[in-house]
Amino acid sequence: MSIKHILFDLDGTLLPMVQEEFVRYYMPLLAKAYMAEGIKIDPGEFIAAVWSGYEAMVKNDGTRTNREAFWSHMKEQLPIPLDQAEEIALKFYEDDFNKAICTTKPTELSDRVVKTAKKKGLETYLATNPVFPRCATLNRIRWAGLDAEDFRIITTYEKCVYCKPNPNYYEKILEKFDLNPAECLMVGNDVQEDLSIRTLGVRTFLVTDTMENRKNLPIDSEYTGSMADLLKFVESM
Predict the structure, then answer these.
(1) Which end of the chain, N or C, is less surrounded by CB atoms within 10 Å?
(2) What tens digit of pLDDT does each residue of 51-87 get?
(3) pLDDT in tens, 108-135
(4) What is the dihedral of CA 15, 21, 24, 28, to 10 degrees?
């Protein structure tokens, strides 16, 4: 069956980066944002708490949003009310977070891939792991040189109730748009997070430029190649 819908990962795929370098750079900036507001925190302990909050989102069972899962965890870690804590975080993601673009390697191939897919009549979706607020994701889309309007959905922590690699995350997207898995393609760089969609019957294209395989899992993907290869693949559709 021919492909009619393409789901794209963002970090490491449409926005080339090494995830570890990106996180190592921006997490201390986030801690500084709180200290700049006079909040007394230990940077190391704060970063560890944020990581635990991330884990709470990954383990989310669908009974609350990822945003609620994260801040419910952080409530015990910060000496300030939750609304104030979230306000500081959102201000950071709107502003100083943009310094982290220095850890990424944007390529004009990404926008060409998306635009080419749309010209071919394919529907495009941004299936980025919904562990960030929408403002942070819109900024990373901008770093990548992409147009947010090109995607039917952009998954963020405000509305999603699952995370990658949980197949339920992908299933929610398929259900929302009534998509036939056999007509979909997932494009991503993370073997664990992006290829998990294959359990739903969706084909995958593993982008190898900055491939992540932290657990050394067996690589099982219908298509594999660089961003340049992906462009040729989409052009041939």
Answers:
(1) N
(2) 999 999 999 999 999 999 999 999 888 889 999 999 9
(3) 999 999 999 999 999 999 999 999 999 9
(4) -60
**Phi and psi torsions of 130, nearest 5°:** -80, 65
pTM of the model: 0.95
Rounded Cα distance, 146 and 101, in Å:
14
| Token duo for residue 1 | 């069956």
Euclidean distance between the first and the last CA atom of the chain, given in angstroms as a whole number: 12
- Do you find a cis peptide bond into 165, omega within 30 degrees of 0? yes
With beta carbons less than 8 A apart as the criterion, state whether 78 and 52 touch.
Answer: no
Please give the C-alpha separations between residue 184 and each of 21, 101, 130, 145, 174, in angstroms, as whole numbers.
31, 30, 20, 24, 9
Q: What is the pLDDT of residues 10-44, one digit of tens each?
A: 999 999 999 999 999 999 999 999 999 999 899 99
Of 189, 188, 192, residue with least CA distance to 166: 192
Token reading at 90: 């959102």
Cβ(3)–Cβ(223) under 8 Å?
A: no
